[in-house]
Amino acid sequence: MTINVLHMKFLKTLAVITLFLFNCTVFSQNRVLDSLLNQLDKASTDKQKAELLNAVSSEYVENNPELMMQYAQKALKLSKQKNFRKDEGEAWFNLGNANIMLSRYTEALKSFTNAQDIFEQLLPEAADKKDEIKANLAKTYGSIGIVCSEQNNYAGSLEYYFKALKLYKEAKQQEIVLRLYNNIGIVYKAQKEYDKALEYFNKALAIQKEIGDSSSAITITNIGNIYLLENKPEQALASFQEALAIFNEHENKRGLGELYNAMGQYYEKTGKYVRAEENYYKGLNVFEDVSEKYGASASLAYLGDLYAKQGNDTKALEYLGKSSVYAEEIGVLEQVKSSEKSISELYEKKGDYKQALIHYKKFEKAKDSINNAENIKNMVREEMNYEMERKAEMQKAEADKKQAIYNEEVKRHNQQMFFVVLFILLLFGIAFLVSNRRQLKKTLTLQKELAEYEQKALHLQMNPHFVFNCLGSISSFIVQNGTDSAIKYLSKFSKLMRLTLEYSKESLIPIDSEIEGLRNYLELEQLRFNNLFEFTITKDPDIEDDMAIPPLLLQPFVENAILHGLVPKKEKGVIKVDFALDGEKLICTVTDNGIGFTKSKEMKVNSVTVHKSMALEITRKRLEVIQAFTSKTSKVEIEDMMTSEGQSGGTRIVLNLPIQYATN
Question: Is 308 exposed, middle or buried (0-12, 13-18, 19+ CB in 10 A)?
C-alpha cells in the first residue's frame, strides 16, 4: 500500500510559503530591523511612524508572529486615528500574516478582508500610487487564497488566486505569476482534477523556461506526478528524467529527494522493484543528509511498503517502524496512522497478536487525533464561511447605502436641472421642446429595440420548431431503435433545455459553460440526424477559466451549419468550433464542410422561415450591444471556403469579441 502523505503535506506547505513570502526580500534581518527601529525612535510625523511601524512588523514575518502582531496593532491604531487609509490597509495585511503563522485562520481571514476593502476603495482614487495599491491588493487576494486553501475551501481559494493572477499579469510580474500557476495546479491536484492541474503546472513551466528559473525541476516533478496519477508511466518517467538533469546542474537537495521518491513510485508501479528500492534509498540518503525528517519519513514508508509487498516482513517492519518514529517526532499524524496500520497488519500476519494489538492501538490513537483535528478544521472552515458571508452582506448593505445616497444626489441634481431646463425652455420655446422630445423618443426606441433583440436572441435557441423536431425524433426512436436510445436522446434534450434556461438569466457565462452547451446540442443533433456529421470543439490553453462570453452566442451559427450546410449535402460532414486569443480579442470560429453559404442562401430564398432568417440579424444586434457596452469592436464575418478545384468547401464563420471576465 503506497502512500504519499508527506509529499502532499510538503507541497501544501511549500505553496503557503511561496505566496505568503513572495514579496519579502531577505536581507540580513537584524541589521534592517536595527535601522528601522532607530528611524522609528527619530520619526517626527505620525505618517512616518505609521509607515515605520508597518515596516518593522513586516520584518518579523519569518520568525516572530507575536512581535509582528504587536507592531501591526500599533500601526493600525495610529492609522485609524489619523485616517491614513493605505497604512491602515497594510496594518490589517500584516495582522493577517501574523494570524496565519499562529494558525488563527478565522482571524486571518477577517484581517485580510478588511485590508481588501480598504485597497479596493483606494484603487479608483489613488492616481499617483495606483501601482502600489494594486500590488497590495494582489498580495491580499493571494493571502486570502492561501487561507481558503489551508481550510480545504478550494472554490474560494481558486477565486482569489485568479483575482491575484489578473493583477500580477497586468503588472507583468512573471515570477509571481508562475508561482500562482503552481499554487492553482496544487489546488486542482488536491481536487483530483488532474487535467487542470497539468495545464497550470505547464503554464508555470513555460514561464520558468522563458526566464531561466532553476526551480523548474520542482514543477517538472509535479508534472511527472500528475502523469503517474493519470496512469501514463512513460510520460511520467520522461518528466522525472528531465527534472533529474536540471537538479544535477542546480543543486536543490529537498527537491532532489522528492524526485527520487517519485521515481521510486514510478518503478514500483511498473513492477521494477529493484530500481524502486534504489531510488527510495537515494531519496532517504538525501533527506537524512539535510536532516529533513518529512521526506525521510516518506522514503522509509515507501521502502517498508515495498518490502511488505515482496514478502520481506522483517525489513518492512524495520523501515515502517523508523518512518512512524520520524513522523511522530515532527507531528505528521497521517504518516503515523498509515505506518502503524501496516505494522499491525504485518504482526497479525506473523501470528504475533500482542505486537499487532500494540501497534493497532497506536494506529487508533493517531486516527482519533486526526479526526479531532479534522473536526476542529471543519468548525474553523464553517466559521470562516460564515465570516465571508457576513462580510459579503455588510458590503452589500454598504453598497446599498452608497447607492441610496447617490440616488438622492441624482434626484437633487435632476431637480436643479429641471429648473434650469425650465428656464431654458422659457427662453428658447417650443423649438427646444420638440427637439428634446424627439431625442427622448429616439433613446426610448433604441432601448426598446435592444431589449427586444436580446430577448429574441435567447428565445431563438429553444424555438417551438426545434422542440417539435426533437420530440418527433424521440417518438421515432421509440418505434425504430427502442427505449434505450430514446431515453438517451430525451436525457440530452432535457439537459440542453435546462442549460438554455439557466444561461438565459446571465449576461456573461464562462467559456467552458458555452462549450458544454454547444457539445450537448451537437450530440443531440448527431442522434437526431443518425450521426450525419462529426464535430470537434477546441480551446486555446491561454484562455483562463474566468474568461466569459454572452450565453448561447454561437448556437445559431452551429444550427445553421447543420441544417443548411450539412443536411442538404447528404454526406458525412464535419463541424469544427474553435476558441482562441488574438491579443485583446477572443476569436470564435465555426467551420463546416457543407454546401457553402452562398449556395445555402440560394436554396433558402423561397423556403426560409422568418425565425430562421432573423438569427444572423439578431446576433449582429447582440454584437452591437457588446460593442456599445465595452467600447471595443465586436463583429461577425461569414465566408465561403473553396477547394483547390474551385468548388465550395464549406462555410467559415468568425466572431471577433472583446475579452470579458465572469468575475467582472
Answer: buried
Paired residues of 652 in beta bridges: 591, 639
pTM recorded for the entire structure: 0.58
Residue 128 exposed, middle or buried by CB count within 10 Å (0-12, 13-18, 19+): exposed
Closest Cα partner for 140 from 176, 163, 112? 112
Measured distance CA(608)–CA(595) in Å, rounded: 16
Provide the 10 A C-beta neighbour count for residue 95.
25
DSSP letter (8 states) at residue 646? S
Assess contact for 181 and 158: CB atoms under 8 A.
no
- Asked whether 593 and 651 are in contact (CB, 8 A), the reply is no
Containing H/E element for 539? strand 533-539
Q: What structural domains does the chain harbor?
A: 467-658 (3.30.565.10)
Residue 11, pLDDT score: 38
Residue range 12-45, pLDDT digits in tens: 333 333 444 334 344 456 788 888 888 988 889 9
199: which 3 cell numbers?
Answer: 495545464
Residue where the block lists cell 433604441: 446
Cβ atoms 657, 585 nearer than 8 A: yes
Instruction: Tell me how crowded residue 185 is: count the other CB atoms within 10 A of its CB.
Output: 28
Whole-number Å distance between alpha carbons of 51 and 47: 6
Kindly give the pairing relationship between strand 509-510 and strand 547-549. antiparallel
Q: What is the dihedral of CA 602, 607, 612, 614, to 10 degrees?
A: 70
Q: Which amino acid, one-letter code, is at 432?
A: F
Distances (CA, A) of 614 to 208, 617, 624: 50, 5, 15
Angle, alpha carbons 625-629-630 (nearest 5°): 120
Q: Name residues of the chain where pLDDT drops below 50.
A: 1-27, 451, 455, 459, 461-462, 608-613
Please name which of 560, 558, 563 lies closest in space to residue 576, comparing C-alpha atoms: 558
User: Which residue is listed with cell 509571481?
Assistant: 176
- Burial of 574 per CB tally in 10 Å (0-12, 13-18, 19+): middle
Give the DSSP letter string of 229-289.
Answer: HTT-HHHHHHHHHHHHHHHHHS--HHHHHHHHHHHHHHHHHTT-HHHHHHHHHHHHHHHHH
Q: Order the strands of the 660-661 sheet from edge to edge.
A: 509-510, 547-549, 660-661
Match 427505449 to its residue by C-alpha cell. Answer: 483
C-alpha cell at 48: 512616518
SS3 letters across 565-595: HHCCCCCCEEEEEEEEEECCEEEEEEEECCC
Q: Three-state SS across 490-505?
A: HHHHHHHHHHHHHHCC
Q: State the cell numbers at 302.
A: 515507501
595 within 8 A of 604, measured Cβ to Cβ: no
Report whether 105 contacts 77 (CB < 8 A): no
Geometric angle at alpha carbon 429, from 423 and 435, rounded to 5°: 105
